[in-house]
């Protein structure tokens, strides 16, 4: 009798341990925990929609030269690293928007992913910036990473990094080929010289 009871307890413990290690759904969100990695959202998630709205407010503030709208999105601790390498603060960004020297300026942003890390969120996406360089108007397309901090019930951007997508001479995006290597490892990569 004791053996049967012990086997029953062992079997029950195994079933409990197996169900605890492989949950089929998260009761808090109702989503399947096995299909979405922790902290990563899909493009239809409420987080992406929420941060797209914030990015739209940011773009609208830049396009309308709206100081107050920009201050509602950017943290006082904000640091921006532009695609050309320029580093600016929130006050410098507001001053650029208020100067309004470039009348052709038009800015859009599209959020692709959002990772929630407690009171920090990281949004990645694409952007298009129509502006003047010297006397010519150009369309700059690229990708961004924005880091947001939860503040006073909302989200403020504390860091922005932009990277321009490169184009070849024909105007198409440059695609890497199999012969290109990102860095040189003397013993393992192909080079101009033969074996020595």
TrEMBL record:
This is DUF4440 domain-containing protein. Pfam families: DUF4440. Residues 168-196 are annotated as: Disordered. It comes from Candidatus Sulfuritelmatomonas gaucii. The keyword Signal applies. Coiled coil: none annotated. It comes from the Bacteria. InterPro entries: DUF4440 (IPR027843), NTF2-like_dom_sf (IPR032710). Residues 53-156 form the DUF4440 domain. Keywords: Signal. Residues 1-20 form the signal peptide.
